[in-house]
UniProtKB/TrEMBL annotation:
PANTHER family: 4-AMINOBUTYRATE AMINOTRANSFERASE, MITOCHONDRIAL, AMINOTRANSFERASE. It catalyses: 4-aminobutanoate + 2-oxoglutarate = succinate semialdehyde + L-glutamate. One of its GO terms (molecular function) is pyridoxal phosphate binding. This is (S)-3-amino-2-methylpropionate transaminase. Belongs to the class-III pyridoxal-phosphate-dependent aminotransferase family. Residues 178-198 are annotated as: Disordered. It comes from Elysia chlorotica (Eastern emerald elysia). GO terms for biological process: gamma-aminobutyric acid catabolic process.
């Protein structure tokens, strides 16, 4: 369908005045799908001249230091991303792990172009006050249909950071309700809260972990400890920070050492909680990622997370599992914490990225008891929920959880084989489903390899100080892994 025809379509005020010819053309467009490229094809340096020109233009109005290249999304398809210079790359970073089905998936295109969804996409309501009539039904069919086991409460948000931010607020509110014994807040609490002083604004804290990343808004940022660019110049509460386990690999060779490492970290968590209570700023919540992604793809065992839950329950505080990057079927189960076999559901689970909408699940004791306590203008977007419905249908129809688990094992084996061949360069290969990572001797060596991979047509990411990370879609196949493997080995030979 031509650009001019698309413009014609969008300038009509109502569907009723669109000609039959235009309707037919639009129908063809909505059901068409781009063919996924068969292999990478790199024609220029990355970024190329067109990307550099666009970057220079954009830099006139905003800082573009982290812009890597500009994308031709009309030509990107499946697991391949195409930049404006025509370079075709296998995308193993997928917009920071946020693309569930690949680019221009036909099911998504069909949903977007379905006239029945026109009102949903044309109108963005304030969901907390004026939700559309079908919002409850759509939430039940989507978010609640894949809710973490044992959880039946959910609130949508716009992004991962605001999901964490509001989950924290829910934890603090629940903690104070217990302290009041269920009584309403006093007038002193109400009035002092408007002055940012106790007792209305109590001295409470949330415990987080070194190398954690939970977002860039101010509350979530207080839990984030990865890069100085995230933190510098911003005031932050003095909340406790514990050590996250650093496991030795291969895991089967270091069972006792890793057990000792996790036990030490759990003991430190208990000490931090006790110290915070003694100092008059008790911990109301522990926030933790099931896999520390931005901080270096750091894993811990199910026993570690079971121990964290035991500590939380003993201390009467909330356990917040941040599944923003790890959820939505990325590991063969819909939520990573399902691998942990927790005795009870966590109190709060945040989500975003592959879920297309942000938000958080919570247990009933975390539910606000007054209106407007968890609130903003939009509280998400019903259009994203409609798109999520299409994603969940594809996941079920194409059995993508099983495929992701299977392809993930194949990818991990590929990394292990490369590690065995290049032991002086590669170490600590690890992964679970669509999450995979491997370490280099230092950041400079890693960055050199990542750059060479890019110029061979494979786009990957980095995390931590020396880790290369892979974040594929749920539709990745073994043939894509083979493409990565060929180019990975070629790049390794060159360094």
């Amino acid at each position: 369908m031509s650009t001019q025809l698309l413009k014609q379509f969008h300038t009509h005020k109502t569907l009723g005045c669109v000609s039959q010819q235009l309707r037919a053309a639009w129908s063809c467009y909505s059901t068409a799908s781009l063919a996924e490229p068969q292999a990478p094809s790199v024609k220029t340096a990355v970024p190329g001249p067109k990307s550099n020109a666009l970057k220079a233009d954009l830099d006139n109005i905003q800082n573009t230091d982290v812009v890597r290249f500009f994308v031709d999304y009309d030509r990107s398809a499946g697991n391949y991303i195409v930049d404006v210079d025509g370079n075709v790359m296998l995308d193993l970073m997928t917009q920071i792990a946020s693309i569930p089905l690949g680019y221009n998936h036909p099911k998504i295109i069909k949903t977007l172009t379905d006239p029945a969804n026109l009102s949903t996409f044309a109108n963005r309501p304030s969901l907390g006050m004026h939700p559309p009539s079908d919002f409850g039904i759509n939430i039940s069919k989507t978010l609640l249909s894949v809710a973490p086991p044992g959880m039946d409460q959910v609130t949508t948000m716009a992004c991962g950071a605001c999901s964490v931010e509001n989950a924290l607020k829910a934890a603090f509110m629940a903690y104070r309700r217990r302290e009041r014994g269920g009584k309403p807040p006093s007038q002193e609490e109400i009035q002092s809260s408007l002055r940012n002083t106790p007792p209305g604004c109590p001295k409470l804290s949330a415990l987080s972990f070194q190398n954690a990343f939970h977002g860039r808004t101010m509350g979530a940022l207080a839990l984030t400890h990865t890069k100085w660019v995230h933190k510098l110049d911003f005031p932050s509460p003095d909340w406790p920070i514990a050590t996250f386990p650093y496991l030795k690999y291969p895991l089967e060779d270091y069972v006792e050492e890793n057990k000792a490492e996790e036990a030490k970290c759990l003991a430190e968590v208990e000490d931090k909680i006790a110290s915070a209570k003694k100092s008059g700023q008790p911990v109301a919540c522990i926030a933790v990622e099931p896999v520390q992604c931005e901080g270096g793809d750091n894993y811990a065992s199910p026993q570690f997370f079971q121990g964290l839950q035991d500590i939380c329950q003993k201390a009467g505080i909330a356990l917040l599992l941040d599944e923003v990057q790890t959820g939505a079927g990325a590991t063969g189960k819909f939520w990573v914490h399902e691998h942990f076999h927790l005795r009870d559901p966590p109190n709060l689970v945040t989500f975003a990225k592959k879920m297309l909408t942000g938000g958080f699940y919570y247990t009933s004791d975390m539910r606000p008891t007054e209106g407007g306590r968890i609130f903003n203008t939009w509280m998400g977007d019903p259009g994203k929920v409609v798109l999520l419905k299409a994603v969940l249908e594809v996941i079920k129809e194409d059995n993508l959880l099983t495929r992701t688990e299977d392809t993930g094992k194949y990818m991990l084996q590929t990394l292990l084989e490369a590690q065995s061949k290049y032991p002086s360069i590669l170490s600590r290969a690890r992964g679970l489903g669509a999450l995979a990572a491997i370490d280099f001797p230092d950041g400079a060596t890693r960055d050199k390899l990542v750059d060479k991979l890019c110029h061979k047509g494979v786009h990957v990411g980095v995390c931590g100080s020396r880790t290369m990370r892979l974040r594929s879609t749920l539709t990745l196949e073994k043939k894509h892994v083979d493409v990565f493997s060929d180019r990975f080995h070629a790049a390794l030979k060159e360094i």
